[in-house]
Amino acid sequence: MSLEQDVAAARGAVDALERACVPLTRYFGDSVDARRLRIDVARLRDDLALLCGAPSRATYEPFATVYGDGDDEGIGGSGRTRR
Hints:
Blueprint: H1 3-28, H2 32-52, H3 64-67
């Protein structure tokens, strides 16, 4: 098998694992173990993406444009003092 075929097979296996785990999580609701199972499956997806060079899922930072680089300029801004 080629690399692409192996990656596709691995991603298909992760998809199958997720489909198999969904009914189980319905029985246990939002328990710690059910959440861990969902996180573990997501981690498998992320690890495959990292290993194979595919871009990982984009993270959304809602205030990134508001705060810029995160520096607090204070009351008057940079270089200004309060009277």
